Amino acid sequence: MSLTLENVTQIVDGQYYINNANLTFESGSFNVLLGRTLSGKTSLMRLMAGLDKPTSGRVLVNGLDVSGVPVRKRNVSMVYQQFINYPSMTVFDNIASPLRLAKESEAVIKQKVIEISDMLQITPFLSRMPLELSGGQQQRTAMARALVKDADIILFDEPLVNLDYKLREELREEMRELFARRNTIAVYATTEANEALALGGTTTILHEGQIVQSGPTAETYHKPCNVIAATLFNEPPINMIPGRITKTEVTFDNTVHFPRTSELQSLQEGDYQFGIRPSHLSLLPKNDDDLEISVQVEVAEISGSETFLHVRNPHFEMVLHLSGVHNYTVDEKIKIYVPTHKLNVFHEDGNLIQACSRRVEDNYHG
Amino acid sequence: MNKKKTLGLSVYIIFLLLPIYWLLMMSFKSNSEILGGLSFWPDTFTFDNYMTIFTDPTWYTGYLNSIYYVALNMIITLTVALPAAYAFSRYNFMGDKHLFFWLLTNRMSPPAVFLLPFFQLYSSVGLFDTHIGVALAHCLFNVPLAVWILEGFMSGVPREIDETAYIDGYTFPKFFAKIFLPLIRSGIGVTAFFIFMFSWVELLLARTLTSVDAKPIAAVMTRTVSASGIDWGVLAAAGVLTILPGVVVIWFVRNHVAKGFALGRV
């Protein structure tokens, strides 16, 4: 079982929704589509499902072109961002509906529905109507309906967005378990880099209808192919600082410079962009080669037990991702430390030249 | 404050119900008492007026005719308007917005305008004085209204429900009947109510396009003038009986209408 998109382009009203997408997903894989809103995640999924037809290009399932096959005849299922259930049916009938249409016997239906609802912990609500449930339970019902038939392709279009934080974490954990034993192609769209990292599998980064990068999640994270990928696949977005490499030094501006490290030795002289993840910046020096920069605090954004500290100096702005709650007053002058060996170096046109060499465990929590 | 409110409300209700009360009282009085003088309660309570209506075929067939063509009209309108409204709500096609508006403009012309063409056309194709003829004539006004109301309700149902149903494997007719219609129940209730109201109350077309076989009750009522003068009591009883079907319909759809007024496009 495999799903392939071949030069798929979708143009609606003269606008490129999807621009020449090429992708292959194998069965048993968990694939994350990462991109901002309007980047084409939903469009791509709709093409995969067969809800829309590509303007050009082909969608292949097991090597067979399915572009013209109606969605009813394809073995796919889909979970939407909104909680989509049939309001006039009980939860049981909701989950059972794909099986009923597949003409399964009542005994089999009952057994399968109970099994899947046990897994998703909605068994006590089977006799209720969907609208009598909480949002999380409604979405679980929708997921159960998607999972109950053994679909070849299961599409999740930001299914957790409308849920509260706690529930989201919980369901996300379960998602991984649900798919561990399945031999289906799971595609999961999200806007959040952290979600992509938590779910693992492969990650495809989408931007303005184009596939920026696709590959195993860890690899995509560590080696973003260009500035866009690096920005999208980090929360908060990676800090980009324009700089210059000279014979002996790396300069961000007149005041901030440091000698070329061994990692940067091979690069030619010239202008570059340097990417540093917010989580790699710190308030205390950790290594000998840390670069000290004096900055002014713009705002300290506290999110749960984490702080996003926005700072600036005359030449660039940066965000620090700190654990714990930190209070700073505006315009307070502080010093931050940049681990120079963790710099990703990008060409001026945005393409990656050199990824940071030393991988550290805590990368994953970036 | 509370007293004032109660007083105001009472006055309002009295004014509202007075004509209906008067009609009801008249229907239980004899002609001589009606013409006699002011009385708030019948001296001699009589059901004769109602008996006249229920036993005289010229009277009760009027009711049957009216009910028959109104029911026909409701069935035709809903079967036509439901798919049309679905198409307007879900699909983009050439000129869809113009067509939608044009439909609505049909309601702007008074029924009298269509009197002559309908009369001439019906006479030549043999639809004159048939129930289906009147029902079809009323469709001209009811279908646009129904499409317009239903479209509002249908657009309130997320498109994703349709797609989920197709993904699950529903065929279109099955999805429409089993999933979609229950979702817009209120809308159908509201629509049925408005269709009924128009068709039941409309007199001009119904009277002109019929003569004997499909003559509506409203037309019968205008012909109670006889040599012995107007039969007031029977006329009042007929009036009461004309109100009743409306009451029954409102009773059935009252919850839907309330919800529909809150949600949809009425």
Feature tags:
heterodimer; A: 366 residues; alpha+beta; Rossmann fold; OB fold (Dihydrolipoamide Acetyltransferase, E2P); 2 domains; six-stranded mixed β-sheet; six-stranded antiparallel β-sheet; B: 266 residues; mainly alpha; MetI-like fold; globular
Outline the structure in words.
- The complex is a heterodimer of chains A (366) and B (266).
- With 366 residues, chain A is an alpha+beta fold.
- Chain A contains eight helices and 20 strands.
- In chain A, a hairpin with a 2-residue loop joins β15 and β16.
- The two termini of chain A are 34 Å apart.
- Chain B is built from 13 helices and two strands.
- In chain B, a hairpin with a 2-residue loop joins β1 and β2.
- In chain B, α3 crosses α4.
- Chain B is globular.
- The two termini of chain B are 34 Å apart.
- At the A-B interface, β6 and α2 of A face α8 and α9 of B.
In short:
The complex is a heterodimer of chains A (366) and B (266). By secondary structure, chain A is α+β, with helices and mostly antiparallel strands.
